[in-house]
Design goal:
By secondary structure, the chain is an all-alpha fold. Helices cover 95% and strands 0% of the residues. The chain is built from two helices and no strands. α1 runs antiparallel to α2. It is rod-shaped. The two termini are 38 Å apart.
């Protein structure tokens, strides 16, 4: 039963490929989680910036211009933070795309090995069927020879 040996040789490879798919999927989930957190932080920073701009505009239109330099430097800091977060989100999106590609490759490799195993299983079933048919033919032949001798 050559096909059975082939099936047994393929099983550990399938486990390895499945582990790789699981690892790649977990890594993608981590990247996605980081991206969601970065987008939330970026939105919060954007909200702070917008409210700071509103506050700065309100101060500029008033007759009292106290603390305008402090608010402007604070806005510069918030804007720089927002830009860093924006770059971080872009980086995470690039990593996410690359990870999706890795996951797709791992899934294709797993599917290829699974198809190979299915082919080996089909070959095994054919071997069993041929063996059973051969045995049935021999039984029928013996019965026939036994009837002709009587």
């Amino acid at each position: 039963m050559q096909s059975m040996r082939k099936i047994k040789r393929v099983q550990p490879i399938i486990k390895i490929k499945q582990t790789r798919v699981d690892t790649e999927a977990a890594m993608l989930a981590r990247i996605n989680k980081e991206k969601v957190e970065a987008v939330q932080a970026m939105r919060e920073s954007q909200r702070q910036y917008m409210s700071g701009v509103d506050e700065l505009n309100r101060i500029r239109t008033s007759s009292s211009r106290e603390n305008i330099e402090v608010i402007e430097s604070g806005l510069d800091h918030v804007k720089a933070k927002w830009y860093r977060l924006y770059k971080s989100v872009q980086d995470l999106e690039n990593r996410e795309r690359a990870q999706i590609a890795c996951l797709n490759v791992a899934e294709r490799e797993l599917k290829a090995i699974e198809r190979l195993r299915e082919r080996y299983e089909l070959d095994f079933r054919k071997e069993i069927s041929r063996s059973e048919q051969k045995m049935l033919d021999e039984i029928a032949l013996r019965q026939f020879q036994g009837q002709t001798r009587s």
